[in-house]
Amino acid sequence: MILLPLLILFPALAFSQENHDSENYPEECAKGVTIYCLAAGMEEQKSGNLEKALEYYRSACENHHTQGHLRACTPFLSLAKELGRLDEASSHLQSRCREGDDRVCFYLAKEFFKIAEYHRGFVHLERLCRENFQPPDPADYGPCYHLGINLEKLGDLKRARDIFKFDCDRDPASAKPSCDQHEVVVDKLALEESKKQLKPVEALPFIVVLVPLVGLLILQWGGPWALRALRLHAPLLTMSCWVAWEFHAQKELTLRSDLFFILPALLLTGAIAWLAHKRLKASIVKGT
Q: For the whole prediction, is pTM greater than 0.85?
């Protein structure tokens, strides 16, 4: 699982002109060559020697002297999480972050996102976003953007919208990616709201089902005027609603599970109307 990302991140490992045997990886790693520490770790991990693999990955992470990213730490943090030792593994980087190295805070947060430790990454990026931290790489979109993107990924669209808006309002020119993404999230939220809202036509099957339920109450306690309405208007109302719904349902629904409720409701409405008619006749006969 970790082999492909490493080959992408460190192409020199896959395409090196030097033909190093895997037995030389530890020796090269001891010289401080990061890609061979990673290669040695991969070999040990494939062999099931996770402790040895973790140490090689640790060496790659802690000795990789680069400005602007912690990509060499990805396999180290990933394996540490797998072994339940992420707190221990990230303690050195966390310490540097607490001591004021915002660059480490920023890239550590991005590493946490890579291994799905979102809450750990949010802690750092929320502060850096507020403080308008600028990444060393001018092509990087910055903490607010990454914070918003990962909130969006987790489905927290409202919070993502607020983060993108905050970044965009502060400086629309430099935060254009956040401005663009803000519009995307606003559209997503609008779509979600429209799905939640009940369209008038979607109320029709509920009316069909509700009429016989109300009809049972009227049949039990209603007077002659109510029985007359139940005899005539209730069937007309349910049939009208059903016919109107059918035009909509044929276009929108492929599985007509709604008919399991509608058809019994129609039959029940008809039965109630017939009973109402019988009671009205009985009351007329009794009155005469």
A: no
